[in-house]
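In this supplementary section we document a worked example of the pipeline. Step one takes a protein sequence of length 515 as its only input; no multiple sequence alignment statistics are reported here. Step two produces a three-dimensional model, which step three serialises into structure tokens for compact storage. The input and output of this example are shown verbatim.
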Amino acid sequence: EVLAEVRCRAALAPGLFSLTVPTGGGKTLASLAFALDHAITHGLRRVIFVIPFTSIVEQNAAVFRQALGELGAAVLEHHSAFVDDKSLARESREKIKLAMENWDAPIVVTTAVQFFESLFAARPSACRKLHNISSSVVVLDEAQTLPLKLLRPCVSALAELALNYKVSAVLCTATQPALQAPEFVGGLQDVRELAPEPSRLFAALKRVHVRHVGLLSDDALAGQLAERDQVLCIVNNRRHARALYEAIAEHPGARHLTTLMCAKHRSQVLAEVRLLLKAGKPCRLVATSLIEAGVDVDFPAVLRAEAGLDSIAQAAGRCNREGKRAPADSAVMIFATENPDWAPPPELKQFAQAAREVLRLHGDDPLGLDAIERYFRLLYWQKGPQELDAHNLLGQIEGGKLDGLPFEMLATKFRMIDSVQMPVIIAFDQEAQTALGELEFAEGCAGIARRLQPYLVQVPRPAYETLRHAGAIQAVNEKRYGEQFMALVNPDLYHPCFGLHWDNPAFISSERLCW
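The serialised model returned by step three reads:
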């Protein structure tokens, strides 16, 4: 029904659209179908999918290629982790590289970082693709994930593209942010909804019962996990995830999932989790919010540390995902943590506060459309217009006028990700070890780098420097590549259950430096 309805609306005039469909309602392929029909109807040149997370870029690109069958080659994937494959013929590699630089393909799947930072960039290489954004359909997946400190510049850019560059933009999410004027300062105007009766859809696809269960100590939380055979617990930081996992490690089916594990490791754990769930065996998974990024798992119960309502909705999407249980039997339990070390990081506290207020006012249906709208309005009101443009970029543009636009300042200040993370290669299995061995003597690295992508762990720069100075990580083929490829050479620092750790000085100073 959703698919049929959005395709019927493809003939609407180009402009701004929203697609508000709850988790599990088929947004991904429905948005692709609308975008293709709309582009064909109005002579638009391409479809650009803008996705918040690199891992979901790869996942959605694969879904699109499968859906398009023999036309799957029309899908171009472009993000920071992509490296062209040396196994392809040189002519093909050069063609793909040029297409990535220019976004010269019928369907482009990219990240929000690539898309928005290119719009505010000052370097020709980053701006080379901009002309191909005009006359296109831009689908903004999970629109609520745009960083608040840059929200007004992002909204202003989308409005400008729709007004003057023949772009049709689709805000696609289950938790639609309240970005429309006049409530949102400088907000979007004339946004048309594509989904058929969103209120009815949300009621029909309601699959869980959400409630706040109050303050839980670590012992109480471990007890909640122990008393349920199949349960997912999502916490706000990796240290809490590890501590909680260690508290339940002896129970059957205990598993751990954070970004301190390389992607290959995480994929193995998720495969085990799915098998345990399908077989009805015990499965107790402790994870950070990475599990909320489109991961296809179906638990009968979910515990979620306090967070924003959009995160809670994503967590709820991992509970009764297939709709085989009654909502009353599918509990999503929100909890506050007793330990101050496990509290949400400062930048997320306002999200959690706004969600707490909405849970109090909309306890009967905290994931309904009214609750979600109230949440975003409350959040944006708490922040205020200044905090939604923290660097006053729009003021700088207005003040500079056409002849004095501060391009370099805009490019410097417009950063969607603030924290600097450094990649460390983990020799997790024989495939990774073989690739690292080849890298020692390789003349070119692109193909090998692509093979090593699933074995990277991103760590904060201070931790990276600690590991480097201790000799726990070392450069591979440093003479040729410098410190481009830093590999973990102390296997004691990668735990088979919870991944990379650097908190034990005895391990850091170990002389067993071999991979």
